[in-house]
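Q: Make up one entry.
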Amino acid sequence: MLEGVVPYPPELAARYRQKGYWEDRSLASVFDEVFSRFADRVAVVSGAERLTYRDLAQRAERLALHLVRLGMRPLDRMVMQLPNIPEFIALYFALQKVGVIPVMALPPHRYLEIRRFVGLTEAVGYAIADRAGDFSLVELAERIRKEQPSLRVVLVHGDEVPSGFFSLRQLLSEESGHDREALRHIQIDPTDPAVFQLSGGTTGVPKLIPRTHNDYLYNSRQAGAMLDVRPDSVFLVVLPIAHNFPLACAGMQGFLLRGARVVLSTSTRGPDVFPLIERERITHLGVVPALLIRWLNDPLLSKSDLSSVRVIQSGGQRLQPEIKRRTEQLIPSATVQENFGMGEGLLTFVRLEDPETVRMETVGRPMCPDDEVKLVDNEGQEVPDGEIGELACRGPYTLRGYYQAPEHNARAFTPDGFYLSGDLMRKHPSGNYIVEGRKKDLINRGGEKISAEEIENLILAHPAVQNVACVPMPDPVLGERTCAFIIPKPAASITLEELARFLTEAGIAKFKLPERVELVEDFPLSPFGKVSKLTLTKRIAEMIQAETRG
């Protein structure tokens, strides 16, 4: 097993195998069979491009042989930062064939995040598009390669491919010269990581979530069952595909496992998405509430034929009942299916057959009979049904520890291996769960989790700032945005524009930027002498409410 990965206890591993949750097969071996079984079916659609399962298999194998030629080996790591394009999927399966572990970066990540991912994993590879809007990812890769000695292979999708980097387009069009037998001799341990997902985290240091071949395969298969994925299903990927949600819950993996079709979109705009739903007869959508609300308010929605949509899967943050009802009124063919999930593992789903009141009020129940869930108080004692407690969980697809993080693991897991998620929930009489908030210091901006501590540490480096506290402020579309309460240094001041410019220059992802600044003389304190973020959160909510009334 890869050093730094916390294994499952032998007795639980034996139970998961005995019950059939774990198949002891690599993702590569399973998908080799899938690609062969559904060879002539269309697997991936992107614009005018339509790839069959056979096409996808051939592309993955060709790329895999190039990776071997470039010296990549099982358990090497490659940071992937590609948009929703077919090359993402081909490279993902190529990495699986070689046993290289992809680290799932997101398109908005910049220097600060990518440097951490490469350094923490000692990644030997980095896959990028040449540009993200007007930002040069090639320049970013050049900078990081100079700083990180492990990084030696950079793959680029696009026209700007500097000397020493490798064009994905070229690799896909040229034979490697390697015999395919080179791939058949690769041994992959199913208990090793297939993927490193990223935790939202409450500190500035990103934590890596090792998802093993055994647990990630089960994750996608069972989520596919929850979503009623059939061979004729068509899944539209509009969220960044590297996210655990559109990648594996059931996501791209789960739909392909069943011979279904995956349609990729690089746009989330209604005028782009609605015609795509019509043309491809999309049956399943995966959304976060902020995106769904934007679509519902788009006048083009009522003029579009969305009658093919059967299931709208919502995750990332709680979806209010009135939005669910409005969605089903405007798209009567669809059922809104809320699920609660985490990159760390546990997934709960509202069942499609649940009564309407349960579907409207809850985020579902665990998808596996051996998901062990407890709601606990601050002393770790289980709370009675109906009372609010912190979600603690373990099971066949929930991690046993973050990668290379023993100190954090000692705090985040109970002695018997339950993961303390920081999510506050209560049990509904139906047995489903209701999300009531969170214990962790996170801001949930449209499903993207932002570490308040990470942003605060960066803001404190500004010469005008004496102290800062970042808290969530309510937003009708995104759920929450970030407000920075700042105590400036004597005779100093700072505006939101100045702060945004400072943080952008630090190389932070745009979605993490504070969207409001409040200058204060001091902070309210809790009875323990700590900054009372609860008080600040209430204060900004009251200010926004008063402004709305005014």
Remarks:
- The mean pLDDT is 94.
- DSSP finds 19 helices and 27 strands in the chain.
- The first strand starts at residue 42 and ends at 46.
- The two ends are 61 Å apart (CA to CA).
